[in-house]
Structure to design on (774 residues):
């Protein structure tokens, strides 16, 4: 695996390998000394064209736990304004000898361009691009789902080696603008799970009928009939409902009424069902405090799993399967 | 008017793809058409044209020459030289320059630069509204009366979205037989739009430009044109629905004409999956079904013309994120080849049809088909010798860096296309010979 750009590029075997590697990484994180020597002497650049403190520190932690040198490169603004162009930034990183570039960008496709335009040799890891993809988020979601719903149920440890066949996942909220939803639909499908997207029609992309999932406009009906094993709530940005290019729903109250996960809806979930949210949450909008703080919510655990998954992704990208240090976990 | 003393004999050329003939060009006009091998070549320069198709010089109704303002992307000189290389003898230079061509002064400047360059006739298009801002009419009459003799008015790049303003423009240009060429794009439906809205945009996460944003404006405009009895030209129509609306309008007798670009005849939105901004254009590349519909519309006459929408951009405006890149692609040097590939080699158009859609019809719409500098005329004795020789058997692989245009943003890069322009004549003077532009410019004036 040279790059990790989109979950749609992952085969089932690659996806399971990533999750299994993440499980190995997670196991090391309960040791007293969490740091592994695996990527010593290698350089990881966190290239962030968009603010995301959470994702950046998650990647930074992951890289440091693998002993890589980490450089944080914040390139806010864009080549639209008077900032340095993506190309020049890439050439600069190339000249500095980056081994891997973790990129977050407001423009869909920017990581793909970095990987393919010939500006850079390094492996490229997409940390979220526009409204396109966010593969490590989907991987950590899948990891969390597997751990709870396969591992704890089947008794096979953390679910190592397993896919998500037979599991049902509802993804609820602003699918149109969500890279998390796109990344999850592709990955969950590859892993054998069944996905239903739930959103008001205004927040469903044109062409969704070609996606490997079902679409519903009704959360209550989906909870009753689909009976999801996992419910993933997407962040809804308040500006989506204002005028201008917004106006996707009439009011936050109405959104919450029809699509919010509140105590009433929480009570209807199956006993084993879990609740996920990629964060940051809008409490009281897409998720109520009762739901966010309930026993079913695995939201805090998602954050911890994010570090393990990112360690796995960095490891597989940079050390590879045939590395001498491959068993050094 | 420059006159050229050289007499040319185009030996064995096939006028409009017909039987081979010798065609003699003298004193700026077609002097003689005789049986192949029969023309007197004494004192004449012979152009061996065996197997080559002779077309009237091509006329582009939609060219961006970028001057004044963006001479780093193209100039009148470089763009018109590229036009000649592509077989054109006249281009209409779009108004979205800097400053905008919304006054007699600017259109006269562009017109003069075209004359000085000498490669093709340059007919400036005037802006419909001041500064392309869509708020009030530019001085259309002054531009029509200027030395540039403007007849085509367009805010191209932007839509005249205000229905009242569009109505006024359609009415006003009747006074001088002008035409409003509409860039049909409902602005609210396309805010932030990056590519065709459909399966691909949904998957790759780029904001969609829905077909309805084009079709709604075209539907409104044909009804306005009918209501006020004006003629309307639809720029770069790109969707199946737009073809249907224009077909319906023509069946009602509405005076509407429509154009399609070469890229919309060949390319689809699947190319956006590469995130290569070379494929970012406005209106966007559409689906395979739309490509088929515009080909069918061009074949059955619903779409009147092919126009390039040649839109040169500098490297820095394309070597960046898709979302930050400029819209547009070059097209002057590939238009004829794309039409051959998509329409002629598929049996949907004859070479006579090509002469219609790339020369006669655009000249007629632009009202440049009469007078001493008439374009788009038949290949016939006594007509101005605006001619293009194309070798339909040639095949060439497109290389942006090797093109004549000053910009490299061709979407056909790396493709092998049929047909090559071997020679172009502007009123009997060769602007291209042996497939290479012939030095012109000041010397000919």
């Amino acid at each position: 695996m040279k790059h990790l750009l989109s979950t749609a590029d992952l085969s089932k075997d690659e996806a399971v390998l990533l999750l299994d590697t993440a499980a190995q990484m997670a196991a090391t994180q309960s040791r007293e000394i969490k740091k592994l020597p695996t990527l010593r002497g290698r350089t990881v650049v966190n290239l962030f064209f968009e603010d995301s403190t959470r994702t950046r520190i998650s990647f930074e932690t992951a890289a440091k736990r693998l002993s890589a040198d980490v450089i944080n490169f914040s390139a806010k603004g864009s080549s639209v304004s008077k900032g340095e162009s993506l190309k020049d930034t890439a050439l600069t990183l190339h000249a500095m000898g980056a081994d891997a570039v973790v990129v977050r960008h407001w423009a869909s496709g920017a990581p793909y361009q970095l990987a393919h335009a010939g500006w850079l040799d390094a492996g490229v890891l997409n940390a979220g691009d526009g409204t396109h993809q966010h593969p490590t988020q989907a991987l950590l979601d899948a990891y969390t789902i597997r751990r709870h719903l396969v591992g704890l149920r089947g008794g096979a440890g953390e679910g190592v080696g397993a896919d998500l066949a037979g599991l049902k996942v509802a993804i609820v909220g602003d699918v149109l603008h969500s890279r998390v939803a796109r990344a999850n639909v592709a990955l969950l499908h590859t892993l054998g799970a069944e996905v239903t997207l739930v959103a008001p029609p205004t927040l469903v992309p044109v062409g969704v009928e070609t996606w490997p999932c079902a679409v519903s406009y009704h959360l209550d009906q989906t909870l009753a009939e689909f009976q999801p094993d996992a419910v993933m709530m997407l962040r809804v940005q308040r500006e989506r409902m204002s005028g201008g290019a917004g106006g996707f729903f009439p009011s936050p109250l109405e959104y919450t009424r029809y699509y919010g996960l509140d105590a009433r809806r929480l009570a209807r979930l199956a006993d084993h069902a879990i609740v996920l949210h990629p964060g940051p949450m809008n409490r009281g909008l897409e998720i109520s405090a009762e739901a966010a703080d309930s026993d079913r919510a695995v939201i805090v655990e998602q954050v911890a799993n994010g570090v393990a998954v990112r360690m796995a992704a960095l490891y597989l990208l940079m050390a590879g399967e045939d590395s001498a240090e491959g068993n050094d976990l | 008017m420059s006159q050229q003393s050289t007499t040319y004999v185009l030996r064995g050329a096939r006028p409009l793809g017909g039987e081979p003939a010798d065609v003699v060009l003298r004193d700026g006009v077609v002097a003689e058409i005789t049986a192949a091998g029969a023309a007197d070549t004494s004192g004449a320069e012979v152009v061996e044209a065996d197997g080559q198709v002779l077309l009237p010089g091509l006329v582009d109704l939609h060219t961006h020459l970028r001057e004044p303002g963006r001479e780093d992307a193209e100039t009148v000189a470089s763009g018109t030289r590229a036009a000649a290389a592509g077989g054109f003898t006249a281009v209409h230079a779009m108004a979205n320059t800097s400053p905008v061509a919304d006054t007699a002064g600017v259109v006269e400047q562009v017109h003069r630069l075209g004359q000085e360059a000498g490669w093709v006739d340059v007919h400036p298009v005037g802006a419909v509204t001041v500064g392309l801002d869509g708020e009030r009419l530019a001085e259309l009459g002054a531009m029509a009366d200027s030395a540039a003799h403007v007849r085509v008015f367009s805010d191209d790049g932007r839509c005249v979205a205000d229905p009242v303003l569009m109505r006024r423009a359609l009415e006003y240009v009747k006074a001088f037989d002008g035409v409003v060429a509409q860039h049909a794009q409902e602005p609210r439906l396309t805010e932030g739009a990056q590519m065709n809205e459909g399966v691909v945009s949904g998957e790759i996460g780029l904001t969609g430009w829905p077909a309805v944003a084009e079709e709604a404006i075209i539907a409104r405009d044909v009804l306005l044109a009918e209501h006020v009895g004006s003629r309307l030209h639809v720029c770069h129509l790109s969707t199946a629905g737009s073809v249907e609306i224009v077909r319906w309008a023509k069946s009602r007798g509405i005076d509407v004409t429509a154009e399609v670009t070469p890229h919309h005849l060949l390319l689809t939105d699947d190319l956006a999956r590469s995130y290569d901004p070379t494929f970012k254009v406005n209106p966007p590349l559409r689906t395979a079904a739309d490509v088929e519909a515009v080909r069918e519309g061009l074949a059955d006459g619903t779409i009147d013309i092919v126009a390039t929408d040649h839109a040169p951009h500098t490297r820095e405006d394309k070597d960046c994120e898709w979302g930050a890149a400029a819209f547009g692609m070059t097209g002057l040097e590939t238009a004829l080849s794309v039409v051959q590939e998509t329409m002629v080699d598929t049996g949907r158009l004859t070479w006579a049809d090509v002469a219609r859609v790339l020369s006669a019809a655009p000249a007629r719409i632009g009202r440049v088909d009469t007078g001493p500098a008439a374009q788009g005329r038949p290949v016939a004795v006594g007509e101005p010798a605006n001619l293009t020789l194309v070798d339909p058997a040639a095949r060439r692989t497109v290389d942006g860096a090797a093109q004549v245009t000053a910009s490299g943003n061709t979407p056909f890069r790396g493709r092998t296309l049929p047909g090559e322009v071997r020679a172009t004549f502007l009123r009997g003077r060769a602007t291209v010979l042996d497939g290479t532009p012939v030095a012109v410019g000041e010397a000919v004036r």
Notes: Chain B touches chain A at residues 191-192, 197-208, 210, 274-276, 316, 319-324 (CB under 8 Å). Chain B has two domains: 8-54+381-392+417-444, 56-365. Chain B has a mean pLDDT of 96.
